[in-house]
C-alpha cells in the first residue's frame, strides 16, 4: 500500500473547477500531477485537452492524458442506451463517477506511487472516528454529493477536494485574481457530457448507427423504437407515442397529446411498446428497493428514522427508514410519498449532513 505523501493526482477536465482546484492544491503545498481522461469527444473536439495541457504547463505541473474512450463507450454510453431500451431511466454521471472516474484516478495514482487523488467536485470530506464521509459543498447551488454515494473507504481516505469549501463565484474570482482569465470565464458544463439536454435526439441518432445491438432477451433495438400506444391505467387507448424509450416515469411535458387534465407517465412496458399515463397522485409510492448499493457506515443508517433520501440531483429531500432485505437489496420505507420514482435511477442517503450511501432503484410501490 502506498504511504501518505504530499503528491496528488488531479483529474483535469479543462474546465474552471478542476483548473482552480489545481491552483488551490499547489498553493496548499501539494505536488500536483494533472490527468485528463479522454472519455468522450463531442464533434471530435479536443479543445478540453489543449486547455488542460496548457494550464498545466503554465502552472509548471506534470500533465498526462489517458485514453478511456473504449471503456467509457461500453460502461457508460451503451449502459445508458440499454437502460432506456429496457424501460428504465439511467444515471450515467453517477455511474461514471463511482465506477470509472474515481477508480481510474486511484489506479493511475497507484501506478505512479501517488497517495492523494483529487477532482474539482463541489463536495467536502470529513473523518469521524476513523471513517471518511463526503459532506455537502459550501456552495449549496453546486453541491455534487448526490453523485458520489458509491465511493468506499479505499477511495475516500485518499480524496482531496479543494473546491468543497468555496463557491463557484469565488472560484472564478480566484482564477481572475491570479491572471487566469480564460479559466475564470469558462462556461459551466451542464447535463450529461455525451448527450444533449434532450436525450431523445441522442438516442435516435445512436440507434440509427448502432441499433443492431440487442439486449439479451429482445429483438433488434432499432426495430423496437416505433409508434405505440399511450393507454390509461385500465389499458384504454389514449393516443399514439413515438416509441417507449423516449419517455420517462413522471414525465408530463412533451407527450404530444392534449387532454383536458394533466397526465404523467406512470409505467413503461417495452415488450408491448406501451406507455401508461395517469394523474400525478397515481404515481405516489412509499417504498423502494435498491440494488448495487453502498453504505459508507451501516451503523449510522440502518434502524434510524431520520435518514434523508434524495432521488434527483435537484429534487427535494424526503425522510425514510432503510433496512437490508433477505435477498440483499436495500428496502426504503418513505415517510411521505414520492412521485416520479423510476427504475434505474439512483437514491442517495444523508444523515447529519453526511453522505451515507445509496443505490440503484429496482422497483417502487
Ligand atoms: N475528462 C476528464 N478527465 C479528468 N478529470 C475529469 C474529466 N472530467 C471531469 N473530471 C473531474 O471530475 C470533476 C467533476 O466533473 P464534472 O464534469 O461533473 O464537473 P464540472 O463542474 O464540469 O468540472 P470542471 O469545471 O472541472 O469541468 C472535474 O472537476 C474534474 O476534476
Largest sheet: 6 strands, antiparallel, barrel
Query: How far is the first residue's CA from the last residue's CA?
Result: 45 Å
Low-pLDDT sequence parts: none
- Element order: H for helix, E for strand: EHEHEHHEEEHEHHHHEEEEEEEEEE
Top-tier CATH class of the largest domain: Alpha Beta
Count up the helices: 9
Mean pLDDT: 94
Quantity of strands, as a count: 17
Give the C-alpha Rg: 22 Å
Q: Which small-molecule species are bound to the chains here?
A: adenosine-5'-triphosphate
State the CATH superfamily name of the largest domain: HUPs
Looking at the overall shape, the CATH architecture of the largest domain is: 3-Layer(aba) Sandwich
Shape: globular
Estimate nothing, just give the exact number of structural domains. Answer: 3
Q: What portion of residues belong to β-strands?
A: 25-35%
Amino acid at each position: 500500500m502506498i504511504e501518505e505523501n504530499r503528491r496528488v493526482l488531479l483529474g483535469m477536465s479543462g474546465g474552471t473547477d478542476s483548473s482552480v482546484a489545481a491552483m488551490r492544491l499547489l498553493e496548499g503545498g501539494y505536488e500536483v500531477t494533472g490527468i485528463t481522461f479522454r472519455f468522450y469527444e463531442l464533434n471530435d473536439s479536443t479543445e478540453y485537452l489543449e486547455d488542460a495541457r496548457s494550464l498545466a504547463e503554465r502552472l509548471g505541473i506534470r500533465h498526462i492524458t489517458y485514453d478511456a474512450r473504449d471503456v467509457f463507450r461500453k460502461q457508460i454510453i451503451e449502459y445508458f442506451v440499454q437502460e432506456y431500451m429496457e424501460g428504465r431511466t439511467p444515471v450515467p454521471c453517477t455511474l461514471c463517477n463511482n465506477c470509472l472516474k474515481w477508480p481510474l484516478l486511484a489506479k493511475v495514482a497507484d501506478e505512479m506511487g501517488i497517495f492523494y487523488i483529487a477532482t474539482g467536485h463541489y463536495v467536502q470530506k470529513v473523518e469521524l472516528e476513523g471513517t471518511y464521509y463526503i459532506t455537502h459543498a459550501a456552495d449549496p447551488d453546486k453541491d455534487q454529493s448526490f453523485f458520489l454515494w458509491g465511493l468506499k473507504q479505499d477511495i475516500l481516505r485518499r480524496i482531496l477536494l479543494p473546491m468543497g469549501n468555496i463557491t463557484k463565484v469565488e472560484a472564478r474570482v480566484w482564477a481572475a485574481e491570479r491572471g487566469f482569465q480564460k479559466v475564470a470565464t469558462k462556461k459551466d458544463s451542464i447535463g450529461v457530457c455525451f448527450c444533449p439536454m434532450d436525450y431523445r435526439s441522442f438516442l435516435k441518432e445512436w440507434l440509427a448507427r448502432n441499433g443492431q445491438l440487442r439486449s439479451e432477451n429482445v429483438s433488434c433495438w432499432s426495430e423496437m423504437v416505433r409508434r405505440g400506444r399511450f393507454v390509461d391505467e385500465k389499458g384504454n387507448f389514449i393516443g399514439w407515442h413515438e416509441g417507449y424509450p423516449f419517455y420517462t416515469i413522471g414525465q408530463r411535458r412533451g407527450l404530444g397529446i392534449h387532454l383536458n387534465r394533466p397526465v404523467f407517465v406512470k409505467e413503461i412496458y417495452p415488450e408491448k411498446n406501451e406507455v401508461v399515463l395517469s394523474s400525478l397522485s397515481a404515481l405516489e409510492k412509499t417504498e423502494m428497493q435498491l440494488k448495487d448499493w453502498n453504505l459508507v457506515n451501516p451503523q449510522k443508517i440502518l434502524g434510524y428514522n431520520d435518514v434523508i433520501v434524495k432521488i434527483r440531483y435537484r429534487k427535494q429531500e424526503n425522510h425514510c427508514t432503510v433496512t437490508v432485505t433477505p435477498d440483499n437489496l436495500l428496502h426504503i420505507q418513505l415517510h411521505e410519498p414520492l412521485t416520479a420514482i423510476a427504475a434505474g435511477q439512483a437514491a442517495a442517503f444523508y444523515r447529519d449532513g453526511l453522505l451515507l450511501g445509496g443505490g440503484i432503484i429496482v422497483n417502487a410501490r
